[in-house]
Specification:
Chain lengths: 741, 587
């Protein structure tokens, strides 16, 4: 490392204490790679000129290059003079105005740049270039038979280069055993210079991959090593620090990410602007964003207090210098922070949207609207307003080609439909996103953007399939998720939770509570509230009523603090079920009514139907089956249209029970019972599809009794047989089974 | 390579210094002196430019201990190579040594190859093929040297010097762990070669690492440990070591004096350091080493004439030395000619880019010139050279504080604080930032800690008191003011502390409110000694006498803090310097 600094002073690079990477303002340096591009261009100008229609011929042209153009080969195996003569004979763009390589065209400009750069090389530099070219040629031909024009920063090559370095350092202990003479060969390979452009490309690509498809990016450790290498050679390469920040965010390393972020901005401040301007450009600007980024960092790590302080600072500096754009960014972080802290930030968000729209920042405005929609959805805003807002932002997104936000918007719509209990709509939205061609050019072999939106949608899809009893499909989706988002990546938590939930539900429905129990701890690790809720469910199922009640009470307090309506309603329902266990059907009623009001207020149709089922059951148990049937009719339609299989079955079972109870003493008893039998048949079909044996047993039992009452001996026997088969498989039924929906 | 040559030469010179310090009157030190003489002659034969011609002369032959058969065979080649080496024609030297078998020749052979590689690397950097490639220029010889040396190392053919060279090669290849092992081995093989110790010193990062090494049991180890303690900021231990070395007979060593002075400088005991440096200047008037540290001290004390004298003196001795440039930089900085100061620091950096102090000082100058971006860059460079440079971290913090980014600078101050946990300045800076961020409880902790570790600027308590005052914690505030006043007066410096009057004023009011009129009137009287508090003091006195006339008894609550116990005692007037008697300095 020392060498870098020692060497700095032999260069006339330092003015005013600032080291400039560009000595004479030369941006282009001749590199071996660029020479091969020049050869290609040369070949192209020699052959006939291309018309637009003849583009296909380009492939033909590139073919000889792929098979090593004779010129390049001649240069490499020949002498230095061959390279010199190549540059001499390079077609002068000035000479031929007609050519594609005229002096103002892109190609012409490139060639002129290269010629200039070549002519500026000193004597020893020319020789160095020549040896570099030889090495480059040998590397490409030696390592792979593929095209020598492949970009030299191909991921594989980067990797192999890196491995070489690491073995050089790491394998010192082993060096003693093997023949040390093998060393210098590897060493020389390292000398192939990484040009500025190549390094920039490498960083840009890795950053892009980190954002869009983490799998394809280098592994965190490998990437960090590469960056360290790069920084060791050129500590002024500020962007590498930023990538290092992103990379350490990936592995949740507070220390290194803070360090890298601040280092990046320290370096950026130097390169940006002339150093003294405090205005919109350059130095002052990067200061503001430095503070803002620090706030974002603390936000991401959940250091809310620090984040707030940093944000205040960013806001103050931005205000002082009248930077409205920066201020808007600050504001958007501010409401995000407030939201993360769990306080109401809708006013702030609205402000942010208004201001962002005013300053023409569509991205921020849309983000704000999306955040507002999310808040509105949980806060029980009217559904049509939310959907309208989403639709409006979608128009904005398409107008500005904000493909990332389109994805998010679709994922959000899916979630909202799902929350409202419209599974069909949710399914549709999910499919739209998954089948949509991304606007962004899909680059670097990324098939689809592996962003959070996709993970969310796929999780919903998996859950929706599981609800319909399609466990095979659901596990397929989960398998796909696991491949696309491996466990160490940022969005892996989403599918982990989803997977656990599905497994938990299955175990509970099967009546295998001991299997469900271990999942509780895992769920709690990913989502505290969800974990607590599941804990309550398991306890209730295991007849630990008091403990379950205590857990639910705690959860309720927690929910009220975080204003999580969905969970509140679910807790109410479960609490009501606890009341049933002690036959407190009337005490459950007020709770259920409260839940119903809440569910209706928030348009949570699935939960509302569920509540109605609970109400009806309570009424049935209280001896008013007519009333129960009345309100059940209201709930049946949405349940059959959108509900999960299990819900459908349960609803039908309940209807049948009510029908039986209603027809108890009446004259048309027989028709009533026959109706009930039909309903039960349907319910049994749903339960068997779900594999919910517990409930299937009840159904068969009821069926058998009904057939018996109706005098259908054959059917009765059949049902009884079915009952017996299921019953043998299951543990003995619990005493208070009747008290269950 | 000039700086490198100087480093190695410096090591030898320091050995000479040690030798010069030994006087024959210490009988048991004769042995040490003999050892030194022999090792220096060994060094000379190998690298020291002066001695080649002489060493082949018969007059010096007697100093050679044993001429092996091989040595005799190689003598001519060695002589030729040595002169080429001295002329910096390293490749040529290596060429003529290639067939030699003696250890001496082998070392020179390898060393020439190493230096040739280094020289080429430096030349190469000018001819780089692009900004990124610039950093990739390496010493091409290193790899081969390592391969050859590691072979010999395995068979145990390396002597102390070649081991040292092997270590240097490993370090240059960033194989630090191996390098440490080899250097330790080198110190065992040739304990008196100070260069190996110095290299080792650069590689040791913490005290645990130091303790884990098994070092040869030799008197030179004490020098090394003392040096190491200074590097690791364990000043107390370092001073102890040096003291024991002085007692052991090295009392005349200018090296030790300079090291002690630097150590005092590091713990900011300015007076001690200054007097030691003055002593050093008397004993060794043409010394340039460490004079930059001396100038820092003079700068801190704003001793313009002394600094000016030092600067002119050094320029006369050698104006192209890093230390000289730093001294001149400091001189201009003290005269507020910051552009010129920065220029001289840049010159120092041109002479030796790894000169850490100059980067930091340049940062300070840019700060003064309000060129914050250049300052940040300078500090960052300093950190790159040495991550543990707390001054640079502190400077970065200050820069961002100037830019009013109080939260942002916390990170930098924290880093500085980590490196110097017992330095009150970082703690005070941290406290100030927290105060600006309205994190008062953190700020209080910082100030209190700053006071506890020994506040240099004596501002921490005052700030703490004001914080308490702001928070209406009057008891705590009074307590802090009391300690502050005690502190100010007990240290004996009758410096002008503007804030003393503030403290007295507050205490007066505080005692008055708590109905302890005796103390209150005492404070009020002291207030009258200060211009800015005189009126209030008088008013308070009037109030007190009014209340007393009404016959209200003063409260005898013992639980209240009472500092001025000593003042109201009878012995107060008898004391030679009354702690509150500031009449002599009151304007």
């Amino acid at each position: 490392m020392a060498s870098v600094h020692e060497s700095l002073y032999f260069n006339p690079m330092m003015t005013n204490g600032v080291v400039h990477a560009n000595v004479f303002g030369i941006k282009d340096w001749v590199t071996p790679y660029k020479i091969s591009v020049l050869v290609l261009l040369d070949e192209m100008t020699i052959s006939k000129r291309m018309t637009l229609l003849e583009r296909r011929r380009l492939n033909k042209l590139i073919l000889p290059l792929q098979q090593v153009p004779p010129q390049l080969h001649m240069m490499v195996v020949g002498e230095l003079k061959d390279m010199e003569s190549f540059f001499d004979t390079l077609p002068n763009p000035f000479s031929d105005a007609e050519s594609e390589a005229s002096k103002t065209s892109v190609v012409g400009l490139f060639m002129r740049h290269m010629l200039l750069a070549y002519n500026k090389l000193s004597f020893s530099q020319v020789y160095k270039l020549y040896t570099a070219l030889q090495r480059y040629y040998d590397d490409c031909l030696g390592s792979q038979p593929g095209p020598p024009t492949a970009p030299p920063v191909d991921a594989d090559m980067e990797l192999s280069e890196m491995e070489l370095t690491s073995t050089e350092d790491g394998a010192e202990g082993k060096m003693d055993k093997e023949e040390p003479d093998a060393g210098p060969m590897q060493y020389s390979e390292l000398l192939c210079p990484l040009s500025q452009k190549q390094a920039e490309y490498f960083l840009a690509r890795q950053a892009y991959l980190l954002k869009n498809d983490e799998n394809k990016a280098l592994k965190p450790a490998a990437l960090q090593e590469e960056l360290n290498n790069m920084l060791k050679f050129n500590p002024d390469f500020a962007e590498a620090h930023y990538l290092s920040y992103l990379n350490s965010m990936r592995v949740q390393d507070v220390f290194i990410s803070t360090h890298s972020l601040l280092h990046y901005f320290d370096r950026l401040i130097l390169t940006g602007g002339d150093g003294k301007s405090n205005g919109d450009e350059g130095y002052g600007r990067s200061l503001r964003y430095a503070a803002l980024n620090l706030a974002a960092l603390h936000c991401r790590f959940g250091h809310y207090q620090q984040a707030e302080l940093a944000l205040q600072e960013a806001i103050r500096i931005a205000q002082e210098s009248n930077d409205h754009v920066c201020l808007q960014h600050c504001l958007s972080w501010l409401y995000t922070l407030e939201q993360m802290k769990g306080s109401d930030s809708s006013v702030l968000t609205e402000d942010s949207v208004k201001m962002a729209a005013h300053f023409g920042l569509p991205y921020l405005a849309s983000l704000g609207i999306q955040s507002l929609v999310q808040q509105g959805a949980t806060g029980g805003k009217a559904a049509n307003m939310l959907m309208d807002a989403l639709k409006d932002t979608d128009i904005l997104h398409w107008k500005h080609s904000l493909s990332e936000l389109i994805d998010i918007s679709l994922a959000q719509t899916t979630s909202i439909w799902r929350m409202y209990g419209k599974s069909t709509m949710a399914l549709q939205c999910a499919q739209v996103l998954l089948n949509m061609n991304s606007l962004e050019q899909v680059d670097f072999g990324v098939q689809q953007n592996n962003t959070e939106a996709f993970a969310v949608v796929l999780c919903h899809l998996a859950e929706l399939h599981a609800e319909q009893g399609l466990f095979g499909a659901s596990s397929e989706i989960l398998k796909h998720l696991k491949e696309r988002f491996p466990p160490h990546t940022q969005h892996a938590k989403l599918w982990m939770l989803c997977d656990l939930k599905i497994q938990f539900e299955r175990a509970m429905n099967d009546g295998k509570y001991h299997l469900a129990e271990p999942h509780v701890a895992a769920i709690a690790a990913l989502d505290q509230m969800e974990g607590l809720y599941r804990k309550g469910l398991v306890m209730k199922a295991q007849n630990q009523t008091t403990d379950a009640y205590r857990v639910l009470q705690r959860l309720q307090l927690l929910c009220e603090k975080t204003k999580c309506t969905e969970m509140i309603i679910r807790v109410m329902l479960t609490t009501a079920e606890l009341h049933w266990e002690s036959s407190g059907f009337s005490t459950a009623l007020p709770l259920l009514l409260q839940a119903l009001v809440l569910a209706r207020q928030h348009h949570l149709q699935a939960l509302a139907s569920e509540t109605i089922l609970h109400l009806a059951f309570s009424q049935l148990m209280l001896g008013v089956p007519e009333q129960a049937l009345n309100i059940l009719h209201e709930a049946m339609e949405p349940i059959l249209a959108h509900g999960a299989l299990l819900d459908k079955g349960r609803a039908l079972l309940l209807v049948a029970k009510c029908q039986m109870a209603v027809s108890g003493g009446r004259e048309d008893r027989r028709t009533g019972l026959e109706q009930a039998v039909q309903t039960l048949d349907e319910a049994a079909a749903y339960f068997s599809r779900m594999g919910c044996k517990d409930r299937l047993r009840d159904t068969h039992y009821l069926q058998a009794r009904l057939h018996h009452a109706l005098g259908h001996t054959a059917q009765r026997n059949e049902c009884a047989l079915l009952f017996r088969m299921v019953d043998q498989e299951l543990p003995p039924a619990r005493a208070n089974l009747a008290n269950r929906l | 390579s000039a700086s490198r040559g100087r480093l190695e030469g410096g090591a030898t010179a320091q050995q000479y210094e040690k030798m010069a310090a030994l006087s024959s009157e210490f009988g048991d030190l004769v042995q040490i002196k003999k050892q030194l003489i022999s090792v220096i002659s060994l060094c000379k034969e190998r690298v020291n430019p002066v001695c080649l011609l002489i060493s082949s002369a018969p007059a010096f032959g007697g100093l050679r201990f044993s001429l092996l058969q091989e040595d005799v065979e190689d003598l001519d080649a060695l002589g030729l190579a040595k002169s080429y080496f001295d002329l910096k024609e390293y490749d040529r030297a290596a060429y003529f040594l290639r067939g030699c078998r003696s250890k001496k020749a082998y070392f020179l052979y390898m060393y020439s190859r190493y230096l040739s590689g280094e020289k080429k690397k430096d030349d190469e950097t000018v001819d780089s093929l692009g900004p990124l490639e610039k950093g990739q220029v390496r010493n091409e010889a290193l790899r081969e040297l390592r391969v050859e040396l590691s072979k010999k190392h395995r068979t145990g053919e390396l002597d102390g010097f070649t081991l040292y060279l092997y270590g240097v090669v490993l370090r240059k290849l960033d194989l630090l762990k191996e390098a440490v092992d080899v250097f330790v081995e080198a110190t065992h093989a040739l304990p008196l070669h100070w260069g190996a110790w110095l290299e080792l010193c650069n590689l040791i990062t913490n005290i645990e690492m130091l303790k884990s090494l098994s070092l040869p049991d030799c008197w030179i180890r004490d020098f090394f440990l003392a040096h190491m303690y200074t590097e690791l900021q364990m000043i107390k231990e370092a001073l102890q070591k040096y003291q024991s070395l002085i007692e052991a007979g090295f009392s005349k060593s200018t090296y030790i004096i300079s090291q002690i002075a630097v150590a005092y400088h590091n713990i900011r005991d300015i007076d001690q350091a200054l007097s030691l440096f003055n002593e050093l200047r008397e004993q060794d008037p043409y010394r340039i080493e460490n004079m930059d540290t001396f100038s820092n001290l003079l700068y801190v004390r704003s001793m313009k004439p002394e600094l000016s004298y030092l600067a002119h003196n050094l320029v006369e001795i050698d104006k192209y030395r890093v230390e000289t440039c730093c001294v001149i930089g400091n001189y201009y900085s003290l005269r507020s000619q910051h552009e010129k100061a920065a220029l001289y620091f840049q010159r120092a950096l041109k002479l030796n880019p790894r000169c850490l102090g100059a980067w930091t000082l340049m940062g300070h100058e840019y700060m003064e010139m309000k060129n914050t971006s250049a300052a940040i860059q300078a500090y960052r460079h300093a950190i790159e050279v040495n991550k543990r440079d707390y001054r640079a971290w502190y400077g970065l913090g200050q820069t961002y504080e100037i830019l009013k980014m109080h939260f942002y600078c916390l990170y930098y101050y924290r880093r500085a604080h980590q490196l110097r946990p017992n330095d009150s300045r970082m703690l005070v800076a941290l406290g100030e930032c927290y105060e600006k961020l309205s994190q008062l409880s953190e700020a209080k902790k910082c100030y209190w800690r700053a006071y506890s570790v020994g506040d240099v600027e004596r501002m921490a308590l005052l700030k703490l008191a004001k914080l308490h005052e702001q928070l209406n914690e009057s008891d705590e505030a009074a307590h802090c003011y009391i300690i502050y006043i005690q502190d100010i007066f007990s240290c004996g410096e009758l410096l002008e502390h503007v804030e003393v009057s503030t403290a007295l004023r507050y205490l007066g009011q505080y005692y008055f409110k708590n109905k302890r009129y005796d103390e209150a009137s005492l404070c009020a009287q002291r207030c009258c000694d200060y211009n800015d508090a005189r009126e209030e003091g008088k008013a308070l006195l009037r109030q007190i006498s009014q209340v007393r006339d009404q016959g209200e008894a003063s409260s005898a609550d013992v639980s209240l803090p009472c500092v001025f116990g000593s003042l109201s005692n009878n012995n107060t007037p008898v004391r030679r310097v009354s702690p509150l008697d500031l009449s002599s300095v009151t304007p």
